[in-house]
Specification:
This protein has 294 residues and is mostly beta strands. The protein is built from two helices and 13 strands, in the order H-E-E-E-H-E-E-E-E-E-E-E-E-E-E. It has one domain: monomeric porin ompg (Porin), CATH 2.40.160.
């Protein structure tokens, strides 16, 4: 009986060590996972909205052996309009198709070439530190978390570890007296991103980005380059270029977006969606005007 239990214990120990070793070989980086596992954070327009905004979009990522069709929801609730907001987003569902070459590159054990997954949930708090004036830029700080709720880690769709991030954005508008262009806005962003890899380590990355926004009374044209620089250098240094055209209306804002992965993000991405401002869902907390930035 003693030898039997000793043998079973040895088998269990070897199985555990093998699984732990396999986990440590996984590269927790955007270059070896699906396009929604750890995307480059968006550089916003450097503003907190007046009203609650609810958005829905669908995107198609393709190229380099991985095709992904996803649906995403976004929401931002200004607790104090223009000053403090809570923002959340999530890929609610995605379908994916991968080639055998990608499956071998990502060391996926099961012989799959297609499937579906549910994405991670993100939550973020944004706070205005300085209000924009004629000569002073807007300054917004934010802090957020990513849960480990995404599925299909074994198919390398989402990380099985959480993440947190914080950043500061600086934005300034420059009015233009033109028939086709009313405003040029520059937004710079720097921050820090950290996510778990194995049970005993993590990856840290500096975030950066720059957004040039051209707009008039009904159209907004964003052009941004952004990325983050991980310390492990295992495909964790993605750099992307993104362009976005938005039709602005009082009832609904409709946008089309294209994104290209320059480094460590092997995807093209096309996104189509809309954002609806909803006044009745906006909290009506009152603030002391002496405490507001001027």
């Amino acid at each position: 009986m003693f030898y039997k239990w000793t043998f079973l214990g040895f088998v269990f120990l070897m199985s555990y060590c093998f699984s732990l070793s396999a986990q440590q070989n996984v590269k927790y980086s955007p270059a070896y996972f699906g396009p929604n596992a750890m995307p480059v954070p968006e550089v916003t327009d450097g503003k907190i909205p007046d009203y609650t905004e609810i958005g829905f979009s669908t995107d198609y990522s393709f190229g380099f052996g991985d095709k992904t069709l996803a649906w995403r929801i976004d929401a931002e609730i200004p607790l104090l309009p223009k000053f403090v907001s809570i923002k959340a987003w999530m890929v609610v569902h995605e379908f994916f198709w991968i080639t055998p070459e990608v499956r071998r590159l990502r060391e996926i054990d099961t012989p799959i070439t297609s499937g579906w997954a549910t994405g991670d949930f993100y939550a973020q708090t944004r706070i205005t530190l300085l209000r924009e004036t004629k000569y002073r830029p807007q300054l917004i700080a934010s802090i957020g978390i990513k849960t480990a709720s995404g599925g299909k880690f074994e198919h390398r769709r989402y990380f099985d570890n959480p993440a947190y991030f914080f950043d500061v954005s600086v934005a300034k508008s420059f009015p233009v007296n033109s028939k086709i262009l009313n405003d040029i806005r520059l937004v710079g962003d720097v921050g820090f991103l950290c996510w778990g890899t194995t049970s005993s380590s993590q990856d840290d990355a500096g975030m950066y980005g720059l957004n040039l926004i051209l707009s008039n009374s009904f159209l907004t044209f964003d052009n941004q380059i952004a990325g983050y620089w991980g310390r492990l250098n295992n495909g964790d240094r993605p750099l992307i270029y993104q362009t976005k055209l938005t039709y602005n209306h009082k009832v609904i804002n409709i946008f089309f977006q294209y994104q290209y992965g320059i480094m460590d993000f092997p995807y093209h991405q096309i996104r189509l969606g809309f954002v609806v401002p909803i006044k009745v869902l906006t909290p009506r907390y009152k603030i002391n005007p002496l405490h507001t930035a001027r």
